[in-house]
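User: Show me a protein chain along with its predicted structure.
Assistant: Here is one chain, sequence first, then structure tokens.
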Amino acid sequence: MRLAHLAAEAGQRGRPVRAGLIGAGKFGSMFLSQVPTIRGLDVTAIADLDVEGARTACANVGWDDDRIAATTFLEDGRALASRDDVDVVIEATGNPRAGIAHARAAFAGGKHVVMVNVEADALIGPLLSAEADKAGVVYSMAYGDQPALVAEMVDWARATGFKIAAAGKGTKYLPAYHAVTPDDVWSHYGLDPEAAKAAGMNPQMFNSFLDGTKSAIEMVAIANACGLSVPSDGLAFPPCGVDDLAHVLRPRDVGGQLEGSGMVEVISSLERDGRPVFRDLRWGVYVVLEAPNDYAAACFRQYGLPTDATGRYAAMYKPFHLIGLELSVSVLSAALRKEPTGRAEAMRGTVACVAKRNLTAGERLDGEGGHTVWGKALPLTAAGDALPMGLAHGVTLARDVRAGEMLRLGDVTLAGDPLADEYRRLIGV
């Protein structure tokens, strides 16, 4: 890639890439831990609602006093996005409304944006891509996070002439997890609630990974970036190990479990009875390729790729992802190559809210990973006017909703909400 070489050259010229980070949580802290060892990359400003907590995060990841003193800390992400000493804005808050506002402030200031905030990207990512183009800047997925890694694998496969049968990631999943709330999440992780609290672990955020919502958000982001399809009835989470990827994740008409070719899907590291899957991909990403001809299929076998019984489908996978530790790839690519590490192109799907329990009119939804709803990935044709997860925090229900029922935009109070209006226009409802 030569990114390290380009960055080192920029540093030697006295023009290192200057990044501004919004949100110094776990993802941001992992990125910050790598910065001192990357030549040609500086973090000049960090915005976080807890400014002292951000300073502490820098100290905790090994920054020395001089580096901390040379960095500007502030509360306002939009103010950071307008600073003259920032080239690339990293949005890592996880709040979709904040993320969209920060991205737009960065575009207005002529800054590139690396969107760690997949929640914002899954909601109106194609619109943000178009706005970045108009501003002459880069809007990018965050390398190290699974969507960008999958987008890279899909791009590699297409650039080498293969057809994509499936692409996605692994996770720990059982159907019962859809009903889990932050009150009982730690038992599923094998953690003591008090120990988790002492470690600063957010139960609602961790529950989003468990109840299926984060998987839905990430798969919609991948579909929107790569032109892939979302399953018509949502993700199936089939149990599957790396040796069986090409067998399971191929179309049904050739013996697999997919409704068609070119799908996103998440595989489970658990069998439905709770037993661990052999050689699972819980922490990794994959792509299943279809050979365009007999010669390529023969090469799959000759070079050791795991294939299905026909030999026409083969799998490539990456067993781990290092999230924030790899984020600098996106930052440097945006600034030095003017190229994103994946970005939303067109709305292929959305994340629909489904009631975790019986809900009553007047209740307030608490959004991603909360007590009230979980997120189901759906194609736009199946979702229709479903309430997207990105609009489901702090809104009030206008009617009773049964457990397992999908919520609609009209089921909550969104009148006068400009983001809701933008979303409606984007998906055509």
